[in-house]
Amino acid sequence: MKTDTPTLSPPSHPAPSDVDDQAELEPEVADLQRRLAAIPTEWIGDELRSALANQAKAAARQRSLVDRRDALDRTINEALAEDNEERALIAAQRLAAVALVVGRVSAIEVDSSLAQEALRRAQEGVLSALQAAQLTQPAYLVERGQWQRLPDGLRLDVRMEPPHPTDLDRQAVRVYEALAARIDRQYRAWLNWQREAAAGGGSVDLWTALGMAAATCEHLDGLADQVAEVNALITKANRARETSGETWHLPPGVAVSAD
Q: What is the pTM of this model?
């Protein structure tokens, strides 16, 4: 997936106070600080961080010069309206100098390979968060799946009873399926977004991609306590099932395919 070179624009709201004097920051630099603060530090390599900082500073310089050019242009118009030729001439001389500099200041492009590396790290971050949210499967569901995959002749045999759930099994299955659906829904949203981005021409804005990945990780990390609680309940149910002798086993010599 190709990653578009990131571009910076003035923030729509104040950036967080992550520097000594945020008020003195140029809008472009403050915007970069805000964006970086929302992304896990390890996703942005030192080289990319430096390149983004240089890009923000160049954008601020370019915007400052354009602002000066526009201000001088207004000054000329005001001076002429007041019949103040001397003031108009002085402003015109300054405008010519500023225009010359503006024409020589160009935006800095960030190496696309650096952006691709950040996106790769973000993808790894999502997979790591998904792995951390891994749920233990209830033993009853495993046994039921094995029974359902038996050959019809065996499964329909009245002597081949299906596994029977205990009350604790039912509780474990209920919370497992509810939380597994939430985790799956969040991860599929991430995958669908990636597919849509690829279908849209194979390019994706770096900040949009990193923001989506960070939001997915934040959501999955936010489920950590629930995952631990559900896994503890499932482990308890699995042990109780085994201790009580409710565990269902495949008939001798019979094997079924895995899920």
A: 0.71
